[in-house]
Every structure is written in C-alpha cells, then in structure tokens.
Amino acid sequence: MSAVQNLPLQTAEVSGSETHIRTRILQGLTVITVVLVAIGVYLALGYAPTEAAQGEVQRLFYLHLAAFAGAFIAFSATVVGGVIYLRTRAVKWDTLALAGVEVGLVLALINLITGMVWARPIWNTWWTWDPRLTSEAIMILTYAAYLMLRNGIENPEQRRRFASVYGILAMTTVLATLLITRIRPDTIHPVVIGPSPQNAEGGFEMTQRISTTIGINSAIWSIFVPITLIWWRIRLENMAERVRALKAQVIER
Amino acid sequence: MKTPFLRTVLSIVQKDLRGELRSRELVGSMGLFALLSILVFSFALELDRVAREEAISGVLWVTVIYASTIGLNRSMAMEREHGNLDGMLMAPIDRTAIFFGKLVGNLVFTLVVGFILLPVMTALYNKSLLDPIVISLLGLGTLGFATVGTLLATMTVQTRARESLLPIVMLPITLPMMLAAVRATTATLSGTPDDGSISWPAILVVLDVIYLVASFLLFEYVVEE
To answer: Which terminus of chain B is more solvent-facing, meaning fewer CB atoms within 10 Å of its CB: N or C?
Structure first.
C-alpha cells in the first residue's frame, strides 16, 4: 500500500487546481441542466394544452422529439470526434466519439420507448414495421455494433482508428432515419415540421403553446442534456484510463 | 518511385482472379450458399404463387448480401493469412489502389454469384428475372455492398471476433442500399417502375457515389500499421 501512495502520479499532476475548476463548472452545468429539464417537463405536462384528438398521451411527444434531437447532436459529436481523431491522433477526440455513441444510444432509446408508449393508444400497437421505426431500430443496432467493434480490438491505437471510421460511416443511418419519412410515401409516421405524408396517423395542429413547448424542450435536450452527459462520460473515461495506468505501474513494481 | 495507380489496381485484380480460377474457393462457397438460401426461403416462407411474386426481390437481395459477406470475409482473411496485406502495405503503391483492387475483385465474384442466381430463381420461382433493368439494378446494388463491405471487412479481419463481426457491422450500414435495391427491383418486376415521386434507381446511384467517396477517404486509415 505504501508503495502505491508514494507513486509519482504523473497523470494526476496536470495542475490540480485546473481539474478542480473544471469539476466545479461541470457540477454547475449539471445543476443547470437538471433545472432546465424540470422546466421542460413542467411545460410539457402543465403549460401545453391537452391536445383535443389524442388527449394526455400526446404530451409524451415533447420528450420524444427532444430526445431524438439530443441523440442527433450526440451522434454528430461522434463524427466530429472521429474526423479530428483521424487527423490529429489525439486520444481525447476518440474519447469524445465514444461518449457521443453511448449518450446518443441512451437518448435514442428514450426516443424509441416514448414513441412506443405513445403508439400503443394512438396506433393501437406497441410496434409496427413502419419505415421510420425500422430505420430507427437499425440505427440503434448500428451504434451497438460500434461498441462491439471496439470490444473486439485489443490494440488501443487500432481500436480508436477503426472506431473513428465506423463512427463516421454510422452517421448515414441517422440521416436515413431523419429523411425516410420524406422519401417513403407509405410511412404512417407524422412529419412534425412541414407537410405529413397522406397516410400519417397521429399528427396534430400546432398552437402557439404547443410550438413553444416543442421549441424549448428541443433546445434543452439538444444543447444541455447531451453536452452535460458527454462531459461526464469523458471524465469517467479519463478516470478509468488513470486507474489503468496506475495499475500498470503497480504491477511493474 | 511508385507503381502507377491503374497498373497496381489491375495487378491486384489479376492476382485475385487467378487465385480464384485455380481454387474456385470464393465463388464456390458463395454460390452454394446462395442456392441453399433460395431453397430455404421457399420452404420457410411457404411461398404460393402470389406470395412468391411479392417476396422474390427480397429473397434475391437478402441472398446476395449474405453471400457477399461470406466472400468478403474469405477474400480479406486470405490476404491476412498469407501475409499478402503486409506485403502490399510495404510495397511502394498507393493505399487507395489496394482498396480499388480488392473492391473490383469482390465485386466481380459477387456479380458472378448474382448472375448465377438470376436464371436459377427465374426457373424455380417461375418469374422472369432476366430483364436488362433487373441486371443493371443488380450491378448497382452489388457495387454498393462491395464498396462498404471491402472497407469494413478490412477492419473486421483484423479484430478478435473476425468472421462473426462483419455481418453485424455491415448489415445496418448498408440498410438504405438494401431498401432502395428491393424497392427498385419490386417496382421493375411488377411492371410499375414509376410508383410516385421518387426514383429508386437514382437513389441507388447516389448511395453508390456516397459509399465510394466515403470508403475512398477512409480506407487509408484502416490499413496503416
């Protein structure tokens, strides 16, 4: 034990006060995010009027769209991290890409589950092979495959390189999910902005309060939620990396 | 002094074709798998005449994409086993030339299997697939699968899980291609190539270009050692 305590912790010596300040900023950001999410939930549950045709279950929609917006931002962070990693080979960019995938996956799952709960009374089924539901499921599986690919590679440098390449390619499935309601005429998924396909089921009229709630919720979930979660995930990864380095040092002694 | 781009591509293609002509390993296993697959589908789906006509393009494309993952795995694994990949990486040639060389080889083998499938399915499913439009759609779709597949297989043969990983990483990425290919084929077979505002063959071409450009840009990052 004493040997461990006397270790020169090179990784920890990146000026203690600076990491301390960063932790404080992150804690502050987290508090702000939690408050904002609470405000968003209040707007969805209290401020927005009950939709005439669908009733209370339509309130889920505010979270549904917002979570997809957040997932989109998180997966975009993966592309940015991947491209910059391949150019600079700085490990932190790959950490950003990994954090983007994990946070994006969680947000995409929230999007999928809220959608299913909403679809039960409106479409009368939990799941239907609608083009957009299918492409969303494929998108989630793509990012699960990203995590499997990472696990399958032992050499860390190679793992980061391959993951960057795959993270960039995987973006095509996100874009396909976004665009599919515009190119497949047989979808029953309503398009929120712009005209819906003819056979869309469950679209609704936008009133002032509804569009305000959509706008504010989407802003919160696409800016504050992904940034805060990704930041925490990066911090966790850095700590795990330090633990690995320390373990290696201990074994060497 | 680098070997010219086109000559490098041609010699890699030539090497793959010569090896295949001698062993018939790739087209043999892919072709056998493809034939089994169409038989399995006809039992599993218990196809009557109407169902067959609706399902035929789906069966065709699912068979082509699974057969291509088998071929891609073998083709890239052979490069690794015999130390070919290392040799090519050390040679004074463009990295992207290796990509296009392997791509052409994989494309040719998958197309051969596809062209064997068309008459066989025509006979077994009693629906003519020997149509110039279907043949060109097969070419466009196979090009997209082979492009993404060559890039991804180069990565997955270098991993621990090897063969099992390629379908997992390749199928979701190529899904838009699959969708467009099935739709275009169904529209052609049912005699209504223009079903509304979108042209599926055009989407196939766009996807081919996107995949080619992306793989071209990303390939050098998956082979550097």
So the answer is: N
